[in-house]
Specification:
Layout: H1 2-27, H2 33-61, E1 79-81, H3 84-87, E2 94-95, E3 101-105, E4 108-112, E5 119-125, E6 135-141, E7 149-154, E8 167-177, E9 182-191, E10 194-201, E11 208-214, E12 225-235, E13 240-253
Antiparallel strand pairs: 1-13, 2-5, 3-4, 4-7, 5-6, 6-13, 7-12, 8-11, 8-13, 9-10, 9-12
Length: 257
């Protein structure tokens, strides 16, 4: 009962406040300057707090919802993962003149060998209906005098647990770009003192693209697998904007014949 009365009272107070400010807006054109100045100060104070509420509400209520773990999986998938950049807000959402080895957040590092960096990065909020990941990652590249640019994603320990050569590892991207460029995906598997590397070129004929790595064609020692990481390598990125709307990595055992 008390809760219901409280809601009714809050509604009444809101309506009275709204009506008071509506009257003030109507009267403002005819007020003297000595009356208009304090009214403007109160209105600005109110707008500041309203803007904070609206900003947080739009940020949190926009789709897809922050914190969602939804990932599109193929039949038989026994592990799937989305890096933190695309999953939730990161500590530093944007950087300019990004240095050659910069940690964007835990488990994600940007590498390049430019003498002078003209590279800007920013985490952005996905708001399109077709997006599953709450966030996207944008790179703006202007002049580029280096020989390589790559985004390195460290896979969690779970990726190595139970990994066998009968597994297929799949990397899915949703990518937008101003002009075409080549993207190569390199899977790295550290097993004992050795590191197996497999490179695939992303087919960029559409927005949603993927590559698969068949571990049957590798020489990894299943008993000594320690860690995995993925390199997204961009070829010819100069004067381009690239938006990665989503990145996911998954694995599934190959169908037995």
């Amino acid at each position: 009962m008390a809760g219901r009365l409280g809601r009714l009272w809050n509604r009444l107070v809101f309506r009275r406040s709204l009506a008071r400010w509506a009257r003030a807006a109507e009267a403002a054109p005819n007020l003297g300057l000595d009356q208009l100045r304090p009214l403007r100060g109160r209105a600005r104070q109110l707008r500041r707090e309203l803007d904070r509420v609206i900003h947080q509400a739009e940020y949190r209520l926009a789709l897809p919802v922050i914190g969602t773990g939804a990932i599109r999986k193929h039949a038989g998938t026994d592990w799937a993962w989305r890096p933190d950049i695309w999953k939730g807000p990161i500590p530093v959402p944007g950087m300019s003149s990004v240095a050659g080895r910069t940690e964007i957040c835990e488990g994600a590092t940007l590498f390049h060998d430019c003498r002078r960096s003209e590279l800007t990065i920013r985490q952005i909020r996905n708001t399109r209906e077709e997006d599953v990941a709450p966030f996207g990652f944008r790179m703006d590249v202007f002049r580029f005098d280096g020989s390589f640019l790559s985004l390195v994603l460290d896979l969690p320990a779970e990726a190595a647990q139970g990994l066998r050569i009968r597994h297929l590892i799949r990397v899915d991207l949703i990518v937008e770009m101003e002009k075409p460029l080549e993207i190569f995906t390199r899977l790295n598997i550290k097993h004992g003192p050795n590191t197996e590397q497999i490179v695939r070129e992303m087919p960029l004929d559409k927005e949603k693209v993927s590559v698969e790595f068949d571990l049957a064609y590798t020489k990894i020692n299943e008993k000594r697998i320690e860690k995995l990481w993925v390199d997204l390598i961009l070829e010819g990125p100069e004067m381009n904007q690239l938006i990665l709307r989503d990145v996911t990595v998954s694995r599934r055992p190959r169908a037995e014949l």
